[in-house]
Specification:
Layout: H1 2-30, E1 41-43, E2 46-48, H2 55-66, H3 76-85, E3 92-93, H4 111-128, H5 146-165, H6 188-199, H7 210-217, H8 230-242, E4 252-256, E5 261-263, H9 264-271, E6 272-274, E7 284-286, E8 288-296, H10 307-314, E9 319-326, E10 329-337, E11 340-344, E12 350-351, E13 371-374, E14 381-388, H11 391-405, E15 417-419
Parallel strand pairs: 3-12, 4-8, 5-15
Antiparallel strand pairs: 1-2, 1-10, 6-7, 8-14, 9-10, 9-14, 10-11, 11-13
Helix pairs in contact: 1-5, 4-6, 4-8, 7-8
């Protein structure tokens, strides 16, 4: 009886938190994001310019950051289509209870896990669909209706409280049906799109869902309801992909840099591991690699000398984004314009979507509205991600990043380095059985996230 009462209290707390966060962050949805027509916009390695005339000068401004690569000089519509095609993963509520806790929502504490999921999802999009892929319905989404959304949340809370006091079961929430029935398609891109989204579903069986990430986080001393830093999330993502059982996820691996150092031989080994089983002496299993690099770009605040470095990273075609944010809030950074970062925000509490349903709605997994934040608000703790399909790709990545990494005249040290050889060839801090430092450099320095 006592346990049941405790569970009811926890559920009520969860309802209050969900409603509070809906109200707390809804004002952001009402604000419009303004983009200049006179400056290029970079989105995960692609360059857009909204000014129709003076094409030659536009190309020159984009080339400053994206030389030697294919440029996209596009319209607002092309930018919107590209942005809205990125996979958006946010707070969810009323999903299956997380084992070992009473949580059925990650509102208030799961934002860094969500930003990590978004970064990994972009890596998987590159792996299975390619950077030029866009979702066919990207431009059909309406902007988020904030007023009806918050009103709905309030009504749901009141209804839940009333039924709780009456001893009745609160009405179940169902994901809204899509505006139109989605026809079944045999198109491979559509299949891969849905499969990627399903890997991040909010259920215990999902390969890289919140339930699985929290389970893997126990080894790092983390539990449901705890705050996670960008470096911790990087290691959790590595474990999740390593232990995934889906055959298509076994064609990719995650490498996490140690102490701001990428050991090239270790990455190359990950790209071409010896095959398992008999008669495999001369055969190798070729895997793509997602490279995650936890860094700290300053002390209490981000050093302004690193702003150009961040711009350079986000302008590279191999970049899959940055897990970061500002103090107390985690964002997924995907681009920039002038002195503002462009990001996707996980702080919107949406209803659980059952991805096991045939033709489940995809709209809530795509964001129609980009947001901007000044570089000066960037917290110094973040994790940078890259995607490499082959050894040749990695060599090109190393070359391009090395140019971006050159320290400025004032900043003596680069954010991270590439070193030839294996990590084991160099003196390192003592490792745990999981291959992680016993005292990770960023564990105490990660910012607190809500």
């Amino acid at each position: 009886m006592e346990n049941n009462e405790r569970d009811d209290v926890e559920k009520l707390k969860s309802m209050f938190l969900s409603a509070w966060h809906n109200v707390q962050y809804s004002w952001i949805l009402k604000t419009k994001t303004y983009f200049s027509r006179n400056s290029p916009v970079f989105l995960l390695g692609k360059c857009y310019h909204f000014k129709a005339e003076e094409v030659e000068s536009v190309a020159g401004s984009c080339s400053d950051k994206a030389s030697e690569r294919k440029l996209v000089i596009g319209s607002v519509v092309e930018f919107r289509r590209d942005f809205a095609s990125r996979i958006w993963l946010t707070y969810r509520e009323q999903f299956p209870q997380i084992q070992g806790s009473s949580f059925t929502s990650d509102c208030g504490w799961g934002c860094t896990l969500r930003t990590g999921q978004m970064l990994l999802a972009q890596g998987l999009v590159l792996h299975l669909l390619g950077r030029d892929w866009t979702w066919s319905d990207a431009l059909k989404m309406d902007g988020l209706d904030t007023e009806s959304w918050t009103a709905s949340a309030a009504r749901k809370l009141v209804s839940s409280l009333e039924s709780s006091f009456q001893g009745l079961k609160p009405p179940e929430s169902h994901a809204p049906a899509p505006g139109r029935a989605e026809e079944a398609s045999t198109d491979l891109n559509c299949v891969h799109h849905r499969k990627i989204v399903s890997w991040f579903a909010d259920c215990p069986a999902a390969q890289i869902g919140v339930h699985r990430l929290i389970e893997l986080g126990h080894a790092s001393g983390k539990s449901a309801g705890d705050w996670y830093g960008p470096a911790v999330v990087a290691h959790i993502l590595r474990k999740a992909v390593k232990e995934a059982t889906d055959p298509e996820l076994q064609g990719i691996t995650v490498y996490v840099a140690q102490d701001c150092t990428v050991y090239s031989a270790d990455v190359i080994d990950s790209l071409q591991k010896p095959a398992q089983g008999p008669e495999t002496e001369t055969r190798v299993d070729r895997k793509a690699v997602i490279i995650l690099i936890p860094v700290r770009l300053g002390g209490e605040k981000t050093n302004p000398e690193y702003f150009d470095f961040v711009k350079g990273i986000l302008s590279l075609e191999y970049c899959i984004g940055i897990i970061g944010g500002k103090p107390k809030q985690a964002y997924y950074f995907v681009g920039f314009q002038d002195d503002s970062l462009i990001y996707m925000d996980p702080h919107y509490c949406q209803s659980f979507v059952d991805v096991s349903m045939n033709g489940f709605p995809l709209e809530s997994f795509h964001c129609p509205s980009p947001k901007k934040m000044s570089f000066t608000k960037l917290d110094p703790s973040c994790t940078i991600g890259f995607y490499s399909r082959s050894v040749q790709d990695f060599e090109k990545i190393s070359e391009e990043i090395s140019k971006v990494l050159k320290p400025s005249s004032k900043e003596k040290y680069p954010a991270f380095t590439f070193v030839k050889g294996h990590g084991r060839d160099y003196e390192q801090s003592e490792l745990t059985s999981e291959g992680e430092p016993r005292h990770p450099q960023y564990s105490s320095g990660d910012f607190v996230l809500l």
